[in-house]
Amino acid sequence: MHNFRELKVYQKSLDFIENVYKISKGFPKDEIFGLTSQLRRAANSIALNIAEGSGSKSKKEFSQLVSYAIRSGYECSACFDISTRLLFINKSTYDSLIKQINEIIAMLIGLSNSINT
Question: What count of Cα atoms within 13 Å lies in the side-chain half-sphere of residue 82?
Answer without folding.
Answer: 14
